[in-house]
Automatic annotation (TrEMBL):
Gene3D superfamilies: 1.20.5.170, P-loop containing nucleotide triphosphate hydrolases. Signal peptide: none annotated. It comes from Melghirimyces thermohalophilus. One of its GO terms (molecular function) is GTP binding. Pfam families: MeaB. This is LAO/AO transport system kinase.
Amino acid sequence: MNGADQEMTESIKEWAEAIRSGHRRSVARAITTLEGGDPRSEELLKALYPYTGKAFLVGVTGAPGAGKSTLVDSLTAHLRKQGLRVGVLAVDPTSPFTGGALLGDRVRMGRHSLDVDVFIRSMGSRGSLGGLAGTTRQAARVLDAAGYDVIFIETVGVGQSEIDIMHMADSVALVLTPGSGDAVQVFKAGIMETADLFIVNKADRDGTGKLIRDIKEMLHLAKKEGEWMPPVIQTEGKTGRGTEAFWTGLVQHRNFMQREQLWAARRRSHLRREVEAMVEAELHHLLLDRMESPVFHRDLDQVQSRRSTPQQLAREILRELIGGEGGMPK
């Protein structure tokens, strides 16, 4: 190891220790480093990883305007009264001009801004199709290592691709509002299976009763005996009504998963999905590089002139990328 490498290693170690001690500026700098693709981030995550896995990761998803941020704000206040440290990662749409989050920390949860045991960060989705910023999982690990007990991950909106939150969070809460038509879209898109809790927010509106009945009817059709039956909880984010019930529902889900020995299996599934996604991303980058080469265009000419087939070309590229015979059918 040369002097520069040793100096960087020592710096990473000190940085990781500062994060583990809860130093807010070090935590914020780490997340910024992750978002920027800094090469130091991999070493930092490696140093932090042994100290992760303790936080309760809660996904909060739902259509824009459903009141997710207000609910998370109320939950944060509720948890702080219990002495729990709270992290919030709010994944917002990315500005096409600046590349940053359209909604920033400063307009969210202002009453917690001076609380050293609450860390709030807005992250731009940066075109990520799953409603999650590409570095959200790593940012959650930084907060986990920093000792935050509960980490809320608030996603951009609802849709088929929003199912990604299921592959990251320990518990997923889907926020719906009466009269918005969200429920119909949820049922069509298959998101019913991703939610561990259904939150009917703005429950003072007309149509609340019908929405609750619709959700419960669909749940009874979709769920099998012995499976977790998601509760349907009424809330009013602005008044705080239902906040305690919301948290109780999350705790009950966590207890059920642990009691039925499903908790570790879910987390293992998340890790598998994460590794798969990393491998796919790396192969995709390698493939794009290969497809920019003159050799690829020459080979594509062979396919276009019918002297070769798409399968043959794909198999040849796979041999180059991963070795062996590749996985394409012959």
